[in-house]
């Protein structure tokens, strides 16, 4: 920790963000490169830490250091804080290392008091300007300095008093209120504050001290904490405080204030883009009291100032080599820059800006790649609500599947499938309490899915991301009543057929229709992803279960398939009844053989299609994984139906048979039950059929002159003997198919590492497995003992209360799950140094996890097709050493 | 591998069991110490391995080696194999390293053929004896040598032909059949064999070769394989073959054969104990064709031979320093010893024999401790079916809770509780499809429990072992119909009120009543366990949830409580409704507070009672662990009930409220859901109440002049922050209670390590935890991804097919689960070298697991009270380096 607590702007520079915060560092930088920045100084973030460490006390000596810096500013401006004859007024603003716009407090016009106001007027200042500034100071300082300590002081009350005054006067606009009346408002404000037990401080230094403490305290106000949690900003870093000579946008009609981006933050177009208000202070632009004007208006009204501003924009872009978000004030036709920072932008803008800046020789390709947050690419790829649309959010759930969707609410998957099918279908949103594999057809036919229960990796969410269906899951504020075909949120009831919309990326549920626009795959995007591929060293595959998925994945840059879930194929159309009738007579080998014979015909075509679509790229195909009871109806519902029938003296033999099967197959913890390789050991015929189908499909592609590279993956292996046992059987099938078909197929056998014991004994398993794919969904479930279907209730509070740094189903938990992966890799490489290593859990599309996968030496990541570009970019960033580090 | 393949008896000794098998080594040893053993030689176990390795071919040169050894025997006996004028006859017997009685094949009287038979008679041999021996040879050799290669040759057919012959002759006993008729029988036998395609070999050497190969082949007959699996004998070790000059018990009335134990194998009493038959060969004693006589009869009939035999028994016991199981033959009043081996015995006999032999100065205390299989102690402690009782086993399930029980079948837990309650109650056996915590009262009131479903660690099994209730679980051949109050097994229907019995240790379900005897805690047992405690270095505690359990555990030698499951207390009597009403309004803090206030009163008394019973010993008390929905009715049943009501136009508000609660709390994988520390973080008041109750209970004991050492254990911790968070709250409660009560309580906080992530991050967790207790049940579930409630369906085939070496819920899986334990210990000791380490999973009472716990340095193991002596003995054996190693 340095001893120096206060830095004049000329003492700092942009590299000092840790100490001076982003705003302070940039004010210093801009001062130093000669931009018109009002002079000032920054109290360091370390002081904030000291303030909290000492129980919210400013450190001894700080006020003296401030005084010294202040003297410098006073000298520069030729004005003195608190001197009625020639007063310096100050702004006091927060500024942490990372931008937290609007989350912390600001006090403007500091230094004004009754005397100073009169003094300024006496010296010729416009009384209206003076009292407008004074009333703002009283409101802001009282709100931020006392609002959290004196009950009942609220900004709202101040606004109301101003509103009442305007009403008394019969005017609408702030600017219509005269100087006298603003002075009266100041009196009312002071009286209000007094009535709450505080005397508004007349002493300028007392004001300053209160303002500094208020900014420090605002670091831990509720909205700042929430914002940091969402943005994953460390709570410990603290904020700096920037104290700066005021410049005034509210001195008259030759004054103004505004904010602008050096490029269009939505589209990335190279054009200065912003809003401003004349005769106003900064907050007016944001607050929406007056409607700000488009910056193009300034071009017409005041081309000189406008051109000067555009010039400053160019200077700043060239200096910072990035698009800037700039605050400015015009005081009596003189332009001041009050802040600049890297501008937040949409994914589309991020990509376009990065590509353009490379073409403009501002940045290198590496910098371009490093600069775009991979998660932003989602926005580039998905349908979005037409920019600028206003809409009515009635509930928020988990952003389970990004993208926007609009359609009529439907509460039954079959009805949704019926209504939504084909291109001709109606646009529907399937609304369910939760979804099961039963609902798949309905989900696929829907524009979007909304569920009341289930987390980010619930069935609905997995399907959503797998198939790119905009989905809001776990929206616990709605109550779905499937029977009544409606859901309610408080008083609002949405009935079947009512239009709703979803904004999946934000978890928003919207009342009514919204205009939805399709993704635009611009040339810039292609260029950008091409660069990413130049740098990246790790492969990117996709999880895809159908030829259509595969084609989409390849279009998005996948180099193969990292996971084909063969069981999804069992749910489709004609197949389900075959599967069910096999299950109902599962212990009869003849039935099993007959039904598997039927399924073989289907599956062979499935795989053939996938290999054709892959055009020679490899496909890791996972043999059947879920417990068989997933194909049967819900036990509870079926029990109730049969009980009701029985009570009514009815009897339905088929239903009762189904119930007996569901009962006998019921599992208390299906996640840890008869599934994966266990199922294959108990009923080996199913996987034998699947391997035959895979290899016959591959053979027919090869015979037609194509190429097919099947990597057959056995799931849920925890003990090498499981793999040894099943592989021995399957190798026989494989050899038989090769012999029958008369072709050689470059197949291999491997396993998923998704059971902790599999990772712990990887040295044994790698003897048998030619490749490992980390199934980090299940590995996370078992390593933590968290069921992803049931963890909503505690994962949310865990993350909120920082018991966990984040949702381990989103980003790999490096210390636990990651440790197991590392153990597995170390052990496996000892016995098979060239073992192919991949990941096919949902984490394969999460940038932080991609970084980790790169660090531990995986050969590829695999994710849902729509996340392929994200993974490609994240992998490139990892290779460049610019990846997302652990939180 | 040695080059020598054949050892004369004089070339071997008892240390050569690996090479010569147990029988061969002991025959050699007995020869060398001068006992009357007919001369012979042994073909090594290595030859068996070679035989299989070369595709069932005898190695080249073997027959020559045999010939050399045979010459030695011929010389000794002055007879020649195959010489009609002076024939040597041989026995060919199997003999592996470990005794596998009756599992493999034997051929006696080898060397007989048509010519030799006539020659022997010509030289004066009794024709009846000659043809009796010949017919036995034809039957035995044909059966073992050809039975597995020629379809239709079966021992059964031979026996039928003899039976038919006796019927033709109108006689009943074998001895009534004349020499001529036996000769005729030999002809019939040869013709029968011929009809199946084999000519019975007349060449003695061909007979010998066939017999040797048959013995090798019998190593892999079905019953031998099953036996080895049950006894966990390695399939690879192979059998030796013993070829020995015949001595004949069937030469006349001065001949005989028998088997005896040097002590009573049931009681351990020091008395020779056995059976014999005059004029018979060995198989007759075993086969039960004739009823053998008690050896005491021989004492009367032939005191000289009897005394000589008793003398040999003493010689052998002193030589082997263990109780022996001996085969003998009397040929013309001369006694021969044909085999000796360590005698199998009951637990009671094992303990008594060991103690007696120490007192007899035959063995040391260490040897006594090493010699008793800890699992045998079960038999010493539990009620048993009165020895000698014949009973009718109608089904077999898993031996979930050892001990015998008899009572009337009852199909409802409440009814069982009603009928069985108090000392006055009827003896009932509770029969359920499966059990849930709801059934606890009924289970406790029952003599025994029988379930159709559920594995060795299902709810029923856990309760069974915890409370010492004889239980057969997962008896899948029965079908329970609770509604009809009956169960069926095939055609048999047992209705409520019918008597059944259980033999829990063997998983037997018995029709009707059987006499059941209580455990006898003899003085020898106490002496023996005292010695165990002298040697053992690791502590033994018990899992106990009530003062009665604690007292039982202490009586059985527990040094404290390693696990008190506080939730069991929530199910009892008046408490359940309080718990349920709290759950129904769980989100209302006022209800929670009120109901917890009521529960506090109960729990304080619970803990006070436990501390009193412990008399100052420590108690590890686990805070609430199960998901709250376990306290609610079954969702499926409730849904059906409400649906039926609704269909009938009825409505029961209370039931519907309950249903809504059950629905909203329902979890898909409750094992991985909202339970353990997660529950405490979401609803911290419950554990705050529990900690208060624990410490108030402790305080009242301390204030009364006693001692109480509560170790408060927080379950299911996977991330240190969980522990940090909850511990901070609970420490406050603890300090508050100390202040209120004005006493200092030596409490500590620790955690269960039962989630893989907990083990992997033990270095972080140990900073907060003063002790670890390995919860190996859950750790095994999560490490393997096996739900113990659902794993029956695959665990059984896994163990049968050797995919797993054993049930990991029985013995700790050292490679996987054990590796995690080792990781946890290594990491924890780095940050807290003196951390107290224990285990409280079911494995704490399993000898192999106890050995492992000793190896990795745990301070104590904890198990159910009835397994405490087993754990004490296993811990002593571990300390002596004689523990049960990994399988």
TrEMBL record, chains A, B:
Known catalytic reactions: pyruvate + phosphate + ATP = phosphoenolpyruvate + AMP + diphosphate + H(+)
The Pyruvate phosphate dikinase AMP/ATP-binding domain, residue ranges: 57-292, 308-358
Protein keywords: ATP-binding, Kinase, Magnesium, Metal-binding, Nucleotide-binding, Pyruvate, Transferase
Name of the protein this chain belongs to: Pyruvate, phosphate dikinase
Residues binding substrate: 565, 622, 754, 775-778
EC number: 2.7.9.1
Required cofactor(s): Mg(2+)
Superkingdom of origin organism: Bacteria
Species per Swiss-Prot/TrEMBL record: Fimbriimonas ginsengisoli Gsoil 348
KW Zinc (keyword) present: no
Domain PEP-utilising enzyme C-terminal: 522-878
Cited Gene3D superfamilies: 1.20.80.30, ATP-grasp fold, A domain (3.30.1490.20), ATP-grasp fold, B domain (3.30.470.20), Phosphoenolpyruvate-binding domains (3.20.20.60), Phosphohistidine domain (3.50.30.10), Pyruvate Phosphate Dikinase, domain 2 (1.10.189.10)
Domain PEP-utilising enzyme mobile: 426-505
Family per similarity comment: Belongs to the PEP-utilizing enzyme family.
